[in-house]
Amino acid sequence: MKFVAAVAALLAAGSAQAVVSFTSIAFDVAPGAGETVVLDFESATPPAGYTITGANFGYYTGTTGGIAAAPAQDDTQYLAVLGGGSATITLPTAIKSFSLYIGSIDAYNSITFNGTGGYTQTLTGADLTATPNGDQGAAATNRRYFFDFGGDRVTSITLSSEANSFEVDNLATAVVPEPATWAMFILGFGLVGSAVRRRRGINTVAA
Question: Where does the Ice-binding protein C-terminal domain lie (predicted)?
């Protein structure tokens, strides 16, 4: 089953309407086209350029009764935010989309996206699935979510939970080229075009 939803919220007075759309697929399927897993939470030290800060969160493997439950079919280390805690993942570059495997979704779990130009949007477990009951094995509560921010760009993601726990794994992104990178592409294409035109303008005379 594929679950599709779109959520929109009007932010502070005078601000533009922020929209986040998402789809989801049961269990930890492969990331989307063009995406690469950038955070697998196998180490408490994230890759260069990423930071994870907050309080009352940790890294677990398997299920620890009453504390954290491994996302369904996930036997690797994952991130769990415990009751009253939060974990903010700061990204090295602004992104327009990403995907994340979320396990045993509860109504009291929430994910907040923060981005450029004051963009912010929060989704709760009840926004993510129609049955946010924390089931540790059901397809409805253990899913890879594919988030898209349209014309907005996100620079950090905050995971919060009012009670134990909010478990996630294998965050994947597709990097948005920086403006300077696009400029280099355009310049490169221009130089190639100029070279082709020059070659066409050269007349070769045989002796």
Answer: 176-200
The reply to whether 81 falls in a domain is: yes
In a domain, 199, yes or no: no
Residue 35, C-beta contacts closer than 8 angstroms, at least 6 positions apart:
98, 99, 172, 173, 174
Please tell me the total count of domains within the chain: 1
Alpha helices by DSSP H, the chain: 125-128, 179-200
Task: Give me the residue label for tokens 């709760």.
Answer: 124
The domain that holds 12 is classified in CATH as: 2.60.120.430
What is the pLDDT tens value at each position of the chain, 207 positions in all?
A: 444 455 544 333 334 456 899 999 999 999 999 999 999 999 999 999 999 999 999 999 999 999 999 999 999 999 999 999 999 999 999 999 999 999 999 999 999 999 999 999 999 999 999 999 999 999 999 999 999 999 999 999 999 999 999 999 999 998 655 554 444 544 554 554 555 455 555 454 444
Give the global pTM: 0.81
In a domain, 60, yes or no: yes
